[in-house]
Amino acid sequence: MRLVKLDLDHAPYDILIARDLLTQVQHILPLLPQKRVAIVTNETVAPLYLPQLQVALEANGVQVQAIVLPDGEKYKTWETLNLIFDGLLGARAERKTTLIALGGGVIGDMTGFAAAVYQRGVPFIQIPTTLLAQVDSSVGGKTAINHPLGKNMIGSFYQPKLVLADLSTLDTLPPREFSAGLAEIIKYGLIDDLAFFEWLEANIDVLMARDTDALAHAVEHSCQNKARIVAADEKEHGQRALLNLGHTFGHAIEAGLGYGAWLHGEAVAAGMVLAALASKELGQISATDLERITALIAKAGLPTVSPALGAERYLDLMAQDKKVDAGKIKFILMRRLGESYIGELTVPVIQAALTAGCAAA
Amino acid sequence: MRLVKLDLDHAPYDILIARDLLTQVQHILPLLPQKRVAIVTNETVAPLYLPQLQVALEANGVQVQAIVLPDGEKYKTWETLNLIFDGLLGARAERKTTLIALGGGVIGDMTGFAAAVYQRGVPFIQIPTTLLAQVDSSVGGKTAINHPLGKNMIGSFYQPKLVLADLSTLDTLPPREFSAGLAEIIKYGLIDDLAFFEWLEANIDVLMARDTDALAHAVEHSCQNKARIVAADEKEHGQRALLNLGHTFGHAIEAGLGYGAWLHGEAVAAGMVLAALASKELGQISATDLERITALIAKAGLPTVSPALGAERYLDLMAQDKKVDAGKIKFILMRRLGESYIGELTVPVIQAALTAGCAAA
Ligand SMILES: NC(=O)c1ccc[n+]([C@@H]2O[C@H](COP(=O)([O-])OP(=O)(O)OC[C@H]3O[C@@H](n4cnc5c(N)ncnc54)[C@H](O)[C@@H]3O)[C@@H](O)[C@H]2O)c1
Ligand SMILES: NC(=O)c1ccc[n+]([C@@H]2O[C@H](COP(=O)([O-])OP(=O)(O)OC[C@H]3O[C@@H](n4cnc5c(N)ncnc54)[C@H](O)[C@@H]3O)[C@@H](O)[C@H]2O)c1
Ligand SMILES: [Zn+2]
Ligand SMILES: [Zn+2]
């Protein structure tokens, strides 16, 4: 078992990484202020993993309420969140009831937010079951729901008491979802960890084969890297923005194609290639660096060519996402391979990157 | 001007108390991270006080968005909260936009919660315009909305950057609302401040005449008392429960009569008399003490006799509100005049208090 320790908000907690963690409830039991939990999950994950967890908890005298939500980003709304509150209040759950999120980032974000605001805050445990949730959304304490006028617009910073990253749950993850998680993993290498990037280059094939040791290493390293960046900037005032590498372009791709056409990780992958192209345009990374980045992303089963939305449309979409000051947009760029920084791009450089990085119209 | 300093959540802030504060925006301006605010108010308060505040801010170059909600506790819901988010997102308000609550406790609680969760937290300023909000709801950082299955069930602990208690706004407060605020003020005397209780006895007539000096003293003292109790127990684990003096009975009255029939402060007033009767029953306060309490509450324009719901119904309602352990219910009781504690009552003592304190059926 691997262990990453987080200390945010003066509330340190552990991320445990291993196979078969789901039934090892000895990690959960000492954290419960009351032998009562509500497991929040969705219709896809419940049949796969809810019974094992529920039985293991009940065998230890824990009263378990299961709240099964519909599956999908489009349900990451107040209405669905309210199903959690309806369930908790209907069962008279008190402030000592612990909420357990069992699912991907959507379930984690919603359950975390529910825990943050139910009776002004109840304890919360994360059991992320997608690769993306294990390496990204379950780390750092951001929780949220969407609003019709914007993604993740309503939420809290709220830390869990424990994260159990059970690698066995990844066995059932569809290949596209698996690759989407790899995009965020590659991102950590590019932000500030060349050694990890090189490890990924050497191990991408075993990773794609979902080898346990390789996965454990990748998840542990990713959590450590994200934890380090987040701990230095918990409320997102500065350096945490590095985690948005590939995301400004990526969000434009997601919005431009219509949400759901590409997975978030896929859009981020293509977005990182665009960020690399722009950095090369600025003379900061070499053609070889660019090739290495593109090759790794391709081997991870991710797109390296962005959709042909047209430069105008990209610029419009990015201007909606970010502030544009005097014709410049903030981007995360690469100073060299394995080192990113918060910078700005002028419109001509963005256009050049798009010309090089988008499919022919 | 009077000043009470609060230091909660490592984010110290001031409560300023005086007439005509509304237009003294020099207190607000230095706190704005961006010259942009959204004032949240309601249809009753907006025509009375919004223009003055808005004009004063705009005269100082602050961009003001007004969000006017319907008036009433029944609108303290997610749907109304969402009107705030719709407004903010429609105007593309960012994380540096400050929310200003201009109104009573309902507006303060909702705006505070909106500020806590909009983009995971934006700055927040309270301008309470009811006596209850000035002495109670604006102090301590509790924010919330109601859920169909319970009051204040969804919320956050979130501190404002500043509270401006403008005593002039109380000029237009209806008499029943004014008296409701006095109930909470009397409560502070009974919790742990005999000197303040005696000051209230001596000054209740000038207070009822809304004399500025008397009001300033009462608001200042109440804020200090609440601040002291809250600072010792910010997240409500122990002593903060003293603030519920009169509230267990009071909630039963509110629920038993149907919410809205009695104002919260009226129910708390009658509830404090019941708590005094129970304490006398236990031999802890004298008949004279009881008379002094009842006389002050009556002079404040508040009910001293509780409605005849029947003891069974009271017990049922209180059991729904509180946990009942082995036939005992937690109550805030009086050890002596001006000193309360967290105790328990047996059913016979509750019945005796109800017999003495309720109207004839
Ligand atoms: N809080 C943060 O810091 C943060 C960071 C990144 C992303 N996010 C959020 O995370 C969400 C995306 O998370 P995601 O990629 O996990 O998506 P997701 O939660 O929608 O999961 C993807 C799909 O996989 C299914 N699934 C989950 N676990 C499975 C398993 N073990 N086997 C088979 N199927 C499984 C889900 O039901 C879903 O259909 C977005 O809403 C995003 O905003 C949050
Ligand atoms: N957060 C806390 O710690 C806390 C504590 C106590 C109460 N509360 C909450 O506060 C709410 C009650 O607050 P309230 O008593 O202020 O009720 P309220 O906000 O409903 O105000 C009472 C009425 O007075 C009107 N009003 C407000 N200011 C006025 C003015 N200056 N002139 C004329 N009319 C005015 C309002 O529009 C409303 O109709 C409840 O929702 C309660 O849950 C919160
Ligand atoms: Zn991402
Ligand atoms: Zn009250």
UniProtKB/TrEMBL annotation, chains A, B:
InterPro entries: Dehydroquinate_synthase, DHQ_synth_AroB, DHQ_synth_fam, DHQS/DOIS_N, DHQS_C. Binds 1 divalent metal cation per subunit. Can use either Co(2+) or Zn(2+). GO terms for cellular component: cytoplasm. It is an enzyme of class 4 (lyase). Its cofactor is Co(2+); Zn(2+); NAD(+). Residues 181-324 form the 3-dehydroquinate synthase C-terminal domain. It holds the Pfam family DHQS_C. It catalyses: 7-phospho-2-dehydro-3-deoxy-D-arabino-heptonate = 3-dehydroquinate + phosphate. PANTHER family: 3-DEHYDROQUINATE SYNTHASE, 3-DEHYDROQUINATE SYNTHASE, CHLOROPLASTIC. Catalyzes the conversion of 3-deoxy-D-arabino-heptulosonate 7-phosphate (DAHP) to dehydroquinate (DHQ). Belongs to the sugar phosphate cyclases superfamily. Dehydroquinate synthase family. This is 3-dehydroquinate synthase. It comes from Andreprevotia lacus DSM 23236. The gene is aroB.
